[in-house]
Design a protein that fits this description.
single chain; 102 residues; mainly alpha; 4 helices; extended
């Protein structure tokens, strides 16, 4: 485990990601209706939009911690390749599920 790995921050990021998923799942059946009036359960729902913002702020903070030196061109491409390898499979799976669902 790298020295800059922080279990507390990673746990918080995981919790925030779960909050966002629950928020999306709780809104699956609702239509966009300008006359919609939330009931008491809707008012107590998890704040998915705030969880996304905090997740991205924490992610940016962690990227800043792990990349303290200014990156040069030779370091950018391997970094982008690692990010693409990490993110593309879940993106492709999500898109396939959306295409199958619709």
């Amino acid at each position: 485990m790298p020295a800059s790995f922080n279990n507390h921050i990673e746990s918080l990021r995981g919790f925030l990601a779960i909050v966002v998923v629950i928020h999306h799942l709780s809104n699956l059946g609702k239509n966009i209706d300008p006359a919609f009036t939330p009931n008491h359960l809707d008012l107590c729902s998890l704040p998915g939009h705030i969880a996304v913002l905090v997740f991205f702020v924490l992610s940016g903070y962690l990227i800043g911690l792990t990349n303290k030196e200014q990156m040069n061109y030779d370091e950018v491409m391997p970094y982008l390749k690692k990010r693409a390898i990490r993110l593309y499979p879940i993106y492709a799976l999500s898109m396939a599920l959306v295409l199958i669902y619709n």
